[in-house]
Specification:
The complex is a heterodimer of chains A (113) and B (113). Chain A has no helices and 11 strands. With 113 residues, chain A is mostly beta strands. In chain A, a hairpin with a 2-residue loop joins strand 6 and strand 7. In chain B, strands 2, 4, 5, 6, 9, 10 and 11 form a 7-stranded mixed sheet that branches. The chains are: A mainly beta (113), B mainly beta (113).
């Protein structure tokens, strides 16, 4: 079983929709959770960072962590065509070597006007 | 502010030829540095990481090597490229001792023919 599982999609939604992106994980030691956005042929860009459980909101983006279920989510409200990208979840464990990150494979999102 | 550069942006090389990809970071000192490869549909694969000049750790044994000749310079090399070396190569940096968040460069797309 991979440490981090992420549905690759593709996910296609109309402009203005609420998007839900999810990852599950198996390692209960994971404490740091990140979401990256990657546009085609570009490097991943850090979008959200959370520590342990709970919610974090930044504009139209909300990251949720449910450690009891080993499940993290990224919600995008009022989605825009500019949100079309691949979204990667990443996580790491406290005390892991050099903050090693474990990545999901990414979910490809298309928001059509 | 910190910036990370990679070059070249794209590269087409014949099988058996050498390789040198360069990554430099500006605006920070003594970062942790990482090389990843991203193959289509296969997520991010960590290749090498470094905590300081001359200190390189390899995650995956293969015909690639890395060097860190200066604090903010990270080089990925190969003496003889294989077809399987094709992919999108990403360099990332992280604050040493800071939160487990990595910041990626723009990437180098390598095609081996």
């Amino acid at each position: 079983q991979k440490e981090v599982e992420q549905d690759p999609g593709p996910l296609s939604v109309p402009e203005g929709a609420i998007v839900s992106l999810n990852c599950t994980y198996s390692n209960s030691a994971f404490q740091y959770f990140m979401w990256y956005r990657q546009y085609s042929r570009k490097g991943p860009e850090l979008l959200m960072y959370t520590y342990s459980s709970g919610n974090k909101e930044d504009g139209r983006f909300t990251a949720q962590v449910d450690k009891s279920s080993k499940y993290i989510s990224l919600f995008i409200r009022d989605s825009q065509p500019s949100d079309s990208a691949t979204y990667l979840c990443a996580m790491s464990a406290v005390g892991s070597t050099l903050g090693r990150l474990y990545f999901g494979r990414g979910t490809q999102l298309t928001v059509w006007p | 502010s910190q910036t990370i550069h990679q070059w070249p942006a794209t590269l087409v090389q014949p099988v058996g030829s050498p390789l040198s990809l360069e990554c430099t970071v500006e605006g920070t000192s003594n970062p942790n540095l990482y090389w990843y490869r991203q193959a289509a549909g296969r997520g991010l694969q960590l290749l090498f990481y470094s905590v300081g000049i001359g200190q390189i750790s390899s995650e995956v044994p293969q015909n690639l090597s890395a060097s860190r000749p200066q604090d903010r310079q990270f080089i990925l090399s190969s003496k003889k490229l294989l077809l399987s070396d094709s992919g999108f190569y990403l360099c990332a940096w992280e604050v040493q001792g800071g939160p487990d968040t990595q910041y990626f460069g723009p990437g180098t797309r390598l095609t081996v023919l």
